[in-house]
Design brief:
The chain is α/β, with parallel strands linked by helices and about 240 residues long. About 40% of the residues lie in helices and about 15% in strands. Strands 3-2-1-8-7-6-5-4 form an eight-stranded parallel sheet. Strand 6, helix 8 and strand 7 form a beta-alpha-beta unit. The structure holds phosphoenolpyruvate.
Length: about 240
């Protein structure tokens, strides 16, 4: 599974060029889960225009309808035939003060309706203190007792790796992914073992080193997904290595 997170980037012109560059570079056509989360205002246009991408999702969602200015609800995602929603991205946590309680409500409202990609990750300070696993366990605490849909996915995104050009060692990522799978399995009511994506400065240069690892089920790609050709190269690497 490879998902692009375009964040607050893009324009009509950009996604049209993107589509040409992506299609020119894409080698293998496999049934890899391939998705893009564009800014929501482009959602409908991109869903009908980017036919080379099978799944279009959103970067975030709200957990209620009604008087909540600026929000987009799960019912609206269903109405628009949205394929997935990212929740808990570190930028939402840091810039918009989203906490685990709020993210939990979002997961509960998405569960069994829209595929959920929950982002978790530690800061540099937490990593240096050796508390990565404690932080991840706390962030995953919100799914305790939930009967998770089989599509429920986790993206491990160390905050310090996002957009920085820094990444953890692939072996460390592998160990953390195994840990995440074990924690989700033990916390969820139905012992769900999630797919775990790695996110944080993934490029077409380093992607192979991550995809080689057993517990890396794919990637959530930010910066490198903004150019169609770079994103296609990452997809090609994945398709050449994983089922
Ligand atoms: C992200 O923000 O989800 C992300 C992975 O960003 P980047 O690839 O730019 O580090």
């Amino acid at each position: 599974m490879i998902i692009a997170n375009w964040k607050c980037n893009g324009s009509t012109e950009m996604y049209k060029t993107w589509s040409v560059d992506f299609s020119n570079e894409l080698l293998h056509k496999k049934d890899t889960y391939l998705g893009i989360a564009p800014p929501s205002i482009y959602f409908g246009d991109i869903k009908s225009y980017l036919t080379c991408i099978p799944f279009i999702g959103v970067q975030d969602v709200d957990y209620l309808d009604g008087p909540r200015t600026g929000a987009i609800s799960v019912d609206m995602l269903i109405d628009m035939d949205c394929n997935f929603s990212i929740v808990g991205h570190s930028e939402r946590r840091q810039l918009f003060n989203e906490d685990n309680e709020l993210i939990k409500k979002k997961i509960e409202s998405l569960n069994n309706k829209i595929m959920t990609v929950l982002c978790i990750g530690e800061t540099m300070v937490e990593s240096q203190k050796g508390s990565t696993k404690n932080i991840l366990e706390e962030q995953l605490g919100i799914i305790k007792g939930l009967e998770l849909n089989e599509s429920f996915t986790v993206a491990y995104e160390p905050v310090w790796a996002i957009g920085s050009g820094l990444t953890p060692e692939p072996n460390d990522i592998n160990e953390i992914h195994k840990y995440i799978k074990d924690v989700v399995q033990s916390y969820s009511a139905n012992n769900h073992i999630p797919g775990v994506l790695y996110g944080g400065s993934v490029t077409d240069i380093n992607a192979e080193s991550f995809f080689k690892k057993q517990y890396v089920d794919g990637a959530l790609v930010g910066g490198a997904s903004l150019k169609g050709a770079s994103f296609a190269k990452i997809v090609n690497i994945f398709n050449g290595m994983k089922q």
